[in-house]
Amino acid sequence: MSISSGLLGALLVSCGSFWWILLAPLFLKTPSATARDWMAIALGSIGVSLAVYAPGAGSGKVLLGGLCFLLASLSGALGLIIMKPLSESIDAKTATGASLFFGGLLLLFTGIPAASAFSRSLSTEIVLVTLALAAISAIAFSIWNRLAHTYPVALLAGYRFLIPLCGTLQASLFIAGEAPGPGLILGGSLIIAAVYIVSRPKETDHFEE
């Protein structure tokens, strides 16, 4: 986030869906990607290229930032692959809590070299923003776990396209100095469309009310 833009990040972190399509058959022996999945991956790849090519104002180091965002989404997909076998023996709340706890410890130890610089820049505003973000994450995960307990996950996945859509809208409204360029607008539309395609329940999925 410090080297690129919130707009670009909101779009590219959604690429975890594409990583999942590619990696899940290799590690979890799930069904191979369908023609619809490959079409979505191709559409998303074109969208990423356009978004990186002309992202707009306040985009910073676009290539480096884009690469980091894609690697972050890859890490998220690998995390899901690791957690998938565990979810069969532990409930969703425990799995979510464990992943957040151990992931937080990893980030904490990684950030130790910058602890002194962080302490010098610590302010009331930073503390409040950190607490707000923690509360938002906790509430969001709690709602998701509740929905996942009530409804099939495949049905909920159909709404994942809202994540990059809401992220880009919020970044445009609340982050000063950022404005979407033509490449980001067109590429973002393609990425959101691709996420919608892969998130839609397949014809073989059946849901109970």
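^ that was protein a. below is b, sequence first then the tokens
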Amino acid sequence: MSEMRKVQRSVVEGVGARLPEKRVTNADLEKIVDTTDEWIVQRTGIRERRIAGPGETTSVLATGAAQDALAKAGRSAADVDLIVVATSTPDYTFPSTATQVQAALGITRGAAFDVQAVCSGFVYAIAIADKFIASGSHDCALVIGAETFSRILDWQDRTTCVLFGDGAGAIVLARGEGEGKISDRGVLTTHLRSDGRHREKLFVDGGPSTTGTVGHLRMSGRDVFRHAVGMVTDVMTDAFAATGTSAQDLAWFVPHQANERIIDASAEKLGIAPEKIVKTVHTHGNTSAASIPLALSVACGDGRIKRGDLVMLEAMGGGFTWGSALVRW
């Protein structure tokens, strides 16, 4: 009898996080803009968020999350030959935040680069790193979502400044072997989408090639909400179809933490039980590309996500971009 052919899988070995020191509650925001705690909680579920201080740049937060993830994985920086950082708020126009993390960790081999897909960035980064590892070209990746959105907020705009927070999360993704089954540990399937026609619904009104300035975040909240549920449920349905699984097979649903109403509506549409949803939006706010790994860090840290669990990740961001990743822990 011939041996079953092994397949390369990208296995999550550790999850880490780094949050800024400063905690800003809704009550704090009531003092600077015309809003209320009740209004924010009712519409978003957000109660507080972290805001980066002067020395807490995106690369500093990303490095802290990477170090935490490596420690949880029992790995050293010397093992890493790929760093993919998802961010829309880099330290510099260039070089990439990933190379800053690489230098801070003392890594001098392999590749390091950024991915810009806004809130979907971490899912995009997982898909990219998975393909590098599955191809055999790389062995161990740091996949990081890191943001300092407070730097691009208009703090006079009460409709946006109350929504976002800063932070970073990271996973160690390393090569493992599977049998090509859904019981394999690792990334089972990823599905990415984009539609650039929706730029004006969620964008930043500046950039090097247009205004020569950083600009501020602008959003049409109703339009984003209207598109979000349909888009993210489509890519999750694709993931189920690709693997022959269903919502009932999931142990955990870890969505982008933008708005509690979007999270609940997406889960309800797909029949995902409320007790399977990981939510951190109430304490983190919307941290864009950092939100999924931050939520993973919380759920792994408190013991909810365990080895062998089937976990669905999904996100939607400006552009529009959206995507899903189905992972066996």
